[in-house]
Amino acid sequence: MRILRSVYVLSLGSCFGIVACSGAKSADGNTNPNSGFNPTNPNSPTGGLVAQNTDTGISPPITAAKAATLTDPNNPSTCTGGGAEPEGGSPPVMEFVIDATGSMHDDPANPAEPNGPSKWDVFSQTMPGVFASLPANFALGVTYFNRPSGCYTGRQAVPIAPHTAAQQTLIANSIANTTPNGYTPTYNAWEFGLTQLQNWQPPAAYATSPKYIVLITDGVPTVLHDSCTVENPISQAEYDAIINGGTGSAGGKAITGIKADGLAAKVKTYVVGVVGSENPQNATYDPLYMLSQIAVAGGTATAGCVPKTGTPSGTTENPRGTYCHFDLSQASDFGAALSSTLGSIAQSVISCDYTVPAPSTGGQIDPNTAALVYNDGSGVYSLVLPNTTPGMTAANCDKGYIFTDAAYTQLHICSTTCKTLQQNPAASLEIRFGCTNGPLIN
Fold it and tell me: What is the CATH topology of the domain spanning 93-348?
């Protein structure tokens, strides 16, 4: 699995070293400070095609030869000048809060094969590769939660740090050295993960980074909010208090607390319910509904999704409800489903805002001659197109890309186009400036 890599190459072209290139005018003599692109200029990189005329803000395919010419930093015939790599927005910080309770170790990954590998066996085989596939500019931390005895206090297995090779090794070793057992303090574990994100002292590159909790669990909470008392499963009264905004029989935060505290800390929460998370353990409530409520409170529910409870029947829900978290409870291949889901989460947090470095030789880039080349991963190349609608901002543009500052140092990929790129796990992008040799789409 490849995660969408924000790999951009900049050629600063005929403008570098010439301060007068700032706000360069197009063929009709007009300057557009938002996109810096003349939609009627046939000599512009896209031959006049703009994002608004397409469904996704992406052009029809260009030839592989044209793409090779555009993305070759040593070929001055199309995009002259030196190269540089921009910084992709603010890289995300992710705290993984992972269920390491007894059922992860004891229960099979496939209930139809009770003698097959446990969920933790499959997890430990899958997760090192998942972590290794994450972009290098992410910052990651990992905690495994359970309550074997006494009270749950939390322990950060791998402190948050940029995703270097050393961090990747620490995470892989932590998985290998973890043996699940004990009970499930779900809400205390979430609070602990939030604390890790709040207390982290980030390097300068992560000072404004978005922060996320990824909560992975296989069952209902079995520890009350006092972090000490086991109630297996928790009572209907405790569950009702959690869902309806109370504090539960032992006090502490409920789902309303997750929403309020997460919002205050600017932390979103993704929820992954793995095999077994559908089992109410003979309780009268639907644990999948509870997990979906956490996703809603955490700001990551599927767009427009409203959770609806199912009807518990012993060890499952029949009928099932409407769920808004990542529900893997019915996955036929737990390892593949887990890998795909976490890859999707990682792609969804990749920034669509980028900083374009200034030319090393001085001056400013010419946005009229920009080409943003998209490779879908199978050798099919297209162009991400400029959005030329007057007044477009990062908040309201939906297709293509724009520059968001007058100096053309900040590039934003608009919402619909960004989503298209994020959903392709094999995609890559390169950007070139100084492309002046005529239309590209033919």
Answer: Rossmann fold (3.40.50)
